[in-house]
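Collaborator request, handled under Task 6.
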Amino acid sequence: MSVYLGNYGFVELRRMSDATQKASVVNPGDVNAARRRFSFDFETGFLTSGDQVEITSTNGADLDFVDPSGWLVNARQSSGAWYINVDDLGGIRLYDTYDKSLAGIQDQAIVLTSIVDDIPIVARVVNAVPHILAECTYFELSTSREAVDTTALGDEFRSQYSSLISGSGQFRAFWEYLPQYAQNSSTENAHYLLQLAVRTEVGSRFGAKLYLKSQGNGTTVAAQDDLIWYEIEGIVTQAAVNFAPDSTVEVTADFVTTGPIQLLSKTAPDNKVLQENDDDIRLEQDPISSLLREAS
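Structure tokens returned to the collaborator:
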């Protein structure tokens, strides 16, 4: 019998958004080029540090408040996507990477330039990069399938037909405060779960991979690099912070799934000959079969 411990698993979160876009205007007075900071009108909770935001002008004009160096083509365009840092006053700085946006250091922000005319814009959150949920101590996923009663008159035994599948679960993680410049860029702090619960403008959607087995863990050498995980999309329905003087501060977030629930696995049998990109080498005479090593 193989025994696996909970420390073989982890949670990978991906930021998502329900909001299609937010229309606003960048005025000349909203741009502080010296501090690489600008602003526009948006509701509290619409944007959070670490979000990747696409900004597009609605009149076809270039985004003149962003220096040409802010684009990979080194030329101003009417649309662009950057990671953002939002300060306590709603000011925004643009960054080219997620970790820089969490740090919020002024000298690492995209250079801005002053403008003389208003620029009407629309902004939308376009995050797609997953990050590990930091300090996660527990996760739970329960799946259920509804049953439809198909018993007919005269039947001696009741009959059922399987129907829709739904899921629900919970995350628990230690709440941790770190100055922005000290945050780990490869992780998503548990505080984000609390932010999800109150983001009325963009909703509380998220994508997640819940790993039951990670690489480097296995009872046999052949299973060391196998992966097994659930892949879901969901919404946070409840979030809480548990305080007690004799214990650590912990965040608890309940969720329900909003789409397919997939139980996936990734295995690499050790008897296959693989290409440099880890793909199988298919046989010409049988495209669904792979080239195998000779038995020793």
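The cover message to the collaborator said: "The mean pLDDT is 81. The chain is about 5% helix and 40% strand. Please let us know whether this matches your experimental observations."
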